[in-house]
Amino acid sequence: MILVLAGTLDGRELAVHLATAGHQVLAAVISEYGRSLAELPGIRVHTGQLTVEGMQNLIADQNITVLVDASHPYAVNGSMNAMQACELAGIEYIRYERAEVCVPEYERLYVASDAAQAAKLAASLGKVIFLTTGSRTLKVFKTEPLLAKCRLIARVLPQPDVVQECVDLGFNPGDIVAIKGAFSQQLNAALFKEYDTEVIITKNSGTIGGADTKIAAAIELNLPIIVIDRPDINYRNLCQTQEQVIDMVDNIECNS
């Protein structure tokens, strides 16, 4: 049985490709929304946050032979837990990570090492800041003293718990854009203009994550954009194409 951490679109696609190639696949997702997306032909689904111990138990209970980590490029804790669980369980870990967007030459583009640095940098660039970083980093921006007098716009998934999280953090309802991507350059530009955006913050989550269209919209509007760089993790068995993953899984299972 192959365990795929499949909280992304390309992770779900990879799970399907592995199943189509003849492998038994268990997809692990965090939320019920993720479960609704991952329930695809030939795929079993496990729902819920997994600690290291939880992954170990799942590996043992389901007779997992290979774990494929296709989680979001910024889901550091999940990846670290997965590598540790695989080492403890004595099974192979494979990391699938989508390619980054090539950051273009643009004098108003800034790269930050993390959300905290991005928050401080944004304070020097404008007063209306459009956040397209997902919900998990919103607290960093809301609690940064330098942004206390700034208007923060949060674009998040239209899930009740995510919207409630924004409200709990102090976002005004009019500053919550609950909408599911992908977003074209035109839609990004329209939203940035609608909210009188002065600064955009995003992550380099690849083309699937829409980083390219956000950057293009910023350039179109001549707005500063801060790109939070990917975490620096030394992944084992790193693959950037689904074909590489399938070949590696085949080799592991043939040699086991």
UniProtKB/TrEMBL annotation:
Metabolic or biological pathway: Cofactor biosynthesis; adenosylcobalamin biosynthesis
EC code(s) of this entry: 1.3.1.106
Residues in the signal sequence: none
One Gene Ontology term of the molecular function aspect: oxidoreductase activity
PROSITE patterns, sorted: COBK_CBIJ
Sorted UniProt keywords: Cobalamin biosynthesis, Oxidoreductase
Transmembrane portions of the chain: none
NCBIfam families reported in the protein's UniProt record: precor6x_red
Name of the molecule in the record: Cobalt-precorrin-6A reductase
Naturally occurring in which organism (per UniProt): Sporomusa silvacetica DSM 10669
